[in-house]
Specification:
By secondary structure, the chain is of the alpha/beta class. It is built from 14 helices and eleven strands. Helix 4 packs across helix 14, helix 7 crosses helix 11 and helix 11 crosses helix 12. It starts with a strand and ends with a strand.
Length: about 400
């Protein structure tokens, strides 16, 4: 996939921004990516716009990208609206890469934007329900109840308890992951939370869904992130610091007849990782830096195991080794992850990609991973039949 190059990235600060509109956030991130690439809006031939919740929260449906980018020079170009739960942004990036590989376009914008902070929190909590099979929602642990904010946290908590029972993983390991990411987030000017935590402070925060504490969980956020991708020949005109897309995979949950057999025994992330490593011609030992989907801290632990950084019973030992922290052998979530950077659903996948681009270009400041040449992003969303409904994994190289 080395014909596809990321020539620019940009993002807004993530956080609670009730005074800002979706349009403002979208335009700021788009401008930042264009300025980073050093190209005018007129060079963009198409836009892939990711958003997951504007319909449910703000009643903006159908033409979201056209609305978010109205009044800019991008108005009038082909716009493709992409919704795929928490994997929306990385899915839009995948589609943009496909459009460039096909030869249809030379230079395209990928934009992810979400505004989750609403005066009526119940709207936001209800929006998450749409990332499940709503017909069977009542069968979900805690589903259909008033405490809707904990629906997906119930899923993470159930899987965390299972891991603890199988492998003896102590809850403090999850607190250590959250602590690490808070330290990383403190170094990221775009992060929602920039206060380093301790294992003790994480463990002392309120229980959301046992064993998960509040500070082990990603927050509701507003924000936007963007990337410009181009064909390699075109990219050479725009940048002297290209970052190549070496692998790009999107998969959905195995359900019904497709869930039978040995494939169901592997998670969607494991299946996607196998494919992306084959595309990129490398393996987990070749990775220098990763951004993974820690909607709750246990999710990062599973990512270590499912992406092949360690065996299925070795995640806790990897945390204790310090290898996944900045300065370690394979830093994970140097941008703070979803826990510290924030999780505006439609923008998260692109924020991960922006962080990896900065890392590979040596532009990550205090959180820079020295000598990083190969990075991976893992982004997952929704819930179907015991697994993520959508998964996307990308490998970038320089």
């Amino acid at each position: 996939m080395n014909q596809v190059v990321v020539v620019g990235v940009g993002m807004t600060r993530f956080g609670k921004q009730p005074e800002r509109s979706l349009k403002e956030l979208a335009r700021e991130a788009s401008r930042a990516a264009l300025e980073d690439a050093g190209i005018p809006e007129s060079a963009i031939e198409a836009a892939f716009v990711s958003n997951a919740m504007a319909g449910a929260i703000w009643r903006q449906e159908s033409v979201r990208g056209q609305v978010f980018l109205s009044g800019t020079e991008l108005a009038g170009i082909p716009m493709f609206n992409v919704e795929n739960a928490c994997a929306s942004g990385s899915t839009a990036f995948h589609l943009a890469c496909m459009s460039v590989l096909s030869g249809m376009y030379d230079t395209v914008l990928v934009l992810g934007v979400e505004k989750m902070i609403h005066p009526d929190k119940e709207r936001t909590f209800r929006a998450f329900e749409g990332a499940t099979d709503v017909e069977s929602l009542l069968a979900f642990p805690g589903g259909g109840g008033r405490d809707r904010q904990s629906m997906f946290m119930d899923y993470y908590a159930e899987e965390a308890r299972r891991h603890m029972e199988l492998y003896g993983t102590p809850v403090e390991i999850f607190a250590s992951i959250a602590t690490k990411n808070s330290r990383h987030g403190a170094l990221n000017p775009y992060a929602q939370y920039r206060v380093p935590q301790t294992v003790e402070s994480v463990m002392a925060s309120r229980v959301v869904s046992d064993p998960l504490r509040l500070l082990m969980c990603s927050p509701l956020s507003d924000g936007a992130a963007a990337a410009i991708v181009a064909r390699e020949k075109t990219a050479r005109r725009w940048t002297s610091r290209p970052v190549f897309v070496a692998g790009s995979v999107v998969l959905s949950a195995l359900t019904g007849p497709a869930s039978a057999g040995s494939e169901k025994k592997r998670s969607n992330v494991e299946r996607a990782a196998e494919r992306v490593y084959a595309q990129a011609g490398l393996g987990p030992r070749d990775l220098d830096v990763l951004e993974v989907h820690d909607a709750a801290a246990p999710g990062e632990l599973w990512a270590y195991e499912q992406l092949g950084l360690c065996g299925p019973e070795e995640g806790a030992g990897l945390v204790e080794s310090g290898d996944t922290a900045l300065g370690g052998a394979v830093p994970v979530n140097p941008g703070g992850g979803l826990i510290a950077r924030g999780h505006p659903v439609g923008a998260t996948g692109l924020a991960q990609l922006a962080e990896i681009v900065w890392q590979l270009r040596g532009e990550a400041g205090e959180r820079q991973v020295e000598g990083a040449r190969t990075g991976l992003t893992q982004n997952a969303g929704g819930f179907l039949e015991g697994d993520s409904a959508a998964v996307s994994v990308h490998v970038l190289t320089r």
